Amino acid sequence: MTAPPSREGTMNDRHGLSIRAKVIATCVGLALTTGFAGGLGIWAFSRVNGAFQVVATQSLPAVNDILQAERDMQQALVAERSLMFMSMATADTKAQIKVHAAELTQVLERWRAYTAIPAREDERKLWPAFGEAVREWEQASRDAVRVLSEDTPSARRDAIDLSMGEGAVKFENARKILSELTAMRIGQAEGHAKTEEARAAAMLWWVVGAVAGAMASALALSVVLARSIAGPLGQTGALLRDIAEGEGDLTRRLQVRSRDELGELARWFNIFVDKLRVIIGQTRESAERAALAAQQLSMGAEQISAAAQEQASSLEETAASMEELTGTVKQNADNARQASQLATESRDTAEKGGRVVASAVASMDEITQSSERIAEIISVIDEIAFQTNLLALNAAVEAARAGEQGRGFAVVAAEVRNLAQRSAAAAKEIKALIHDSVQKVKAGSSLVNQSGQTFHEIVASVKRVTEIIAEIASASQEQSQGIEQVNKAVVQMDRLVQSSAAQTEELSSTALALAVHAKQLRALVWRFKLTDGGADRAAEPGLDAGLETAPATAMAPRGSARRTRTLEARLTRAGSGNGSTARDADDFEEF
């Protein structure tokens, strides 16, 4: 995506050098100029240092050796003159003689040290004269000391004359030569100093000129380098500042003709702005879609909230119906429980009657058996009466045969026969009665048996009815518990619906907040200019009206707390009257 150049910044670089090459070239130029100035200063310093080395290693040591030699001569002369006023027999005199000899030896050593130093020809010409003069003075001084060693007044006078006369002249000759040599060396040092001072002044101007040239070159190179770097960076910063704080114009580009790092920076800056245009364009479209989606989401959330409120109302009505149904089911359960109790009592009574009937049937069976036994006994008695009657008849026949003698026996036989007949008649009557009783007992036993079977059937039916009623009571109890669970589920559903309604309202608020954020995002992305002429700003859609008409606050819950309290009260009333009330209440509180 390439935007047309509009108010572009231009970066010109005819040489095409990279910043690294420019910096290196600048540093090399600075190093060369600084090196030149430093080399010139080092050369000048070496020249001056060479001159000072000559002074330090030749002139000053030579002057020092000359002065030391002169001092040693003076010390030897002082020792010589001191001996003239001392007794030769003392230890101090001997020490003074040693000092005198040592000083003379040291003069020669100082002279040899001096002659070892390089010197000019005019100085060398004076060396033989000084050697001769110092030898003569040394000889005169030694002679004076030798004369003094005689330790006589005349010898002392001779020594004084020698020392003050010839010795003094020779001493002065040698000292004058040393003074001339000293003056020569000092003059040479002063000449070197003046020469090197003039040379140092000239070198100073050369060094100052070189340093000034190096500084001017460094300043010029720095200015050129700063312009070549700061100018493009300033243009880039201006464009970035315009994007960040100005109109957010993303149509401007940097035109770069250089091939250095700034050219790469400008090229990548243009690519970045192109990418940013694409991203902001896409973000703008996404913001529009997000704003529209947020508005639709808010409307949908309001509809869902209204539906949730209606569902909550329906659940409240359902809870009322469930309460009535719970009361009816509880009443049916109570009636079924009472019927089960009555059926249980009826079953117990029927079982008791069945046992009584069974006992009666058993008694009737025993009576029937006893009647049959009596009938058998009566039959035996009847047979006995029949046999007795036959025996009485036979006795009567035999008594009739016996005549008069058998008359009393005949009377007895007649009575026995009457008794037998009467017994037979009574036995027949008893037999008939017993037979009738047996028949009646059998009929009663049959009826009692039928009554027993009927009672058994009644007991079985009562047991079945009791079991059915117990099952009905158990089912009613389970149905009552199920209704209570349904009540709890309805309350839970109502709470869930209320929670869903609250969440839906929160969703509506969130959707509204999302719409507001989408509006803000749209306001942010519409700050940027993506096309020329402000066409993109004119095309900004007007979704703000829809967002402004959206509710500013979420809907408050419509009686959710009241419905929840009502359902809790109904559940408490529905759960009263059974053993699970406390547990159900605890479960409800936990729920």
At CATH level 2, the architecture of the largest domain is Orthogonal Bundle
* SSE succession: EHHHHEHHHHHH
Radius of gyration, in angstroms, nearest whole number: 80 Å
Q: What's the CATH first level of the largest domain?
A: Mainly Alpha
CATH fold-type name of the largest domain: Helix Hairpins
Tally the beta strands: 2
Secondary-structure map:
Elements: E1 9-11, H1 19-83, H2 91-115, H3 121-148, H4 153-245, E2 254-256, H5 261-402, H6 407-525, H7 535-538, H8 544-548, H9 560-574, H10 581-590
Parallel strand pairs: 1-2
Helix pairs in contact: 1-2, 1-3, 1-4, 2-3, 3-4, 5-6, 5-9, 6-9
Explain this structure to me?
- With 591 residues, the protein is mainly α.
- It has two domains: 230 residues, Four Helix Bundle (Hemerythrin (Met), subunit A), CATH 1.20.120.1730; 328 residues, Helix Hairpins, CATH 1.10.287.
- It has ten helices and two strands.
- Strands 1-2 form a two-stranded parallel ribbon.
- Helix 1 packs parallel to helix 3 and helix 1 packs antiparallel against helix 4.
- The two termini are 62 Å apart.
- 25% of the residues are buried.
- The N terminus and C terminus are likely disordered.
